[in-house]
Amino acid sequence: MFPRKRRRVAAHVETEFVVDDAEMAAMAALSDWEVSLQQLWEEFPQSPNLPPLALHTQFYALLADRTEVDRAFHACRKTDRRVAVVHLPALGEDALVSADALAALLVRAAAAAAAPVAASTASAVGCARALELAGRFLVHRCRDAVLGSDLDAVYGQASAPASAAMLVTAGYLVARSVADEAARAWAWALPSLGGLSRELGAARRRAVAVLAKKTLPRTAHR
Predict the structure, then answer these.
(1) Lowest mean pLDDT among 152-156, 157-161, 217-221
(2) Distance from the CA of 48 to the CA of which of 12, 54, 135, 155 falls in 20 to 30 A?
(3) Of 190, 172, 165, which is closest to residue 134 (Cα–Cα)?
(4) What secondary structure, in 3-state letters, does 125-170 show?
(5) pLDDT digits over 58-86, tens only?
(6) What phi and psi values does residue 145 have, to the nearest 5 degrees?
(7) Degrees, nearest 5: CA angle 77-174-152
(8) ∠ Cα 25 30 34 (to 5°)
């Protein structure tokens, strides 16, 4: 008779964490929000001049609670250092973009403006410098709104007004309203969106259609 093999059973230790309903709801919302944001960026059509965007209204199609969407969007734009906010005047709403991606886009625009063919005038050279400093220092300093004090800190008080004007002309800054312009406050923008509003709207619809078929993971309730 063959000797019987003994099966080793590993001891299973389970630790319970006491989480109240409010904390559990916050954890679930955060999980869904993070997954939605990453998937919206991943599903965005690739473009050399357009970083992946996640529009505010897209989250309404993916997450059931609109109030939670608005709360999470506001919290993300204020506290998540990975994210920058871009205003889309053609669509009348804001979008979330990777701060690193926006900074890289500005640096590439600076290199293009500094190319021998492009940099034939003093204004072109100044624009290249404004874009370079914006990409390297301004984006991560002010990911949501760009204030006059931020421009003063990066460009110096003497050069800040001209630099702001160059960034606005280039299409990377935009005043949300007359009041914002008077208060020296701007939002980030993307110049390539001027002629791509229809394409962006179609991309938004395609991304929502794809993601609506996917099941987003939710935090398990115990």
Answers:
(1) 217-221
(2) 155
(3) 172
(4) HHHHHHHHHHHHHHHHHCCCEEEHHHHHHHHCCCCHHHHHHHHHHH
(5) 999 888 899 999 999 999 999 999 999 99
(6) -110, 145
(7) 80
(8) 155
Q: Which residues contact 210 (CB under 8 A, 6 or more apart)?
A: 43
Give 144-150 contacts, CB < 8 A, sequence gap 24+: 144/77, 144/78, 144/84, 144/85, 144/187, 145/85, 145/185, 145/186, 145/187, 146/173, 146/185, 146/186, 146/187, 146/188, 147/184, 147/185, 148/183, 148/184, 148/185
**69: amino acid identity, one letter:** V
Q: What does the CA dihedral 166, 170, 172, 173 come to, rounded to 10 degrees?
A: 50
The token duo for 37 is: 């944001």
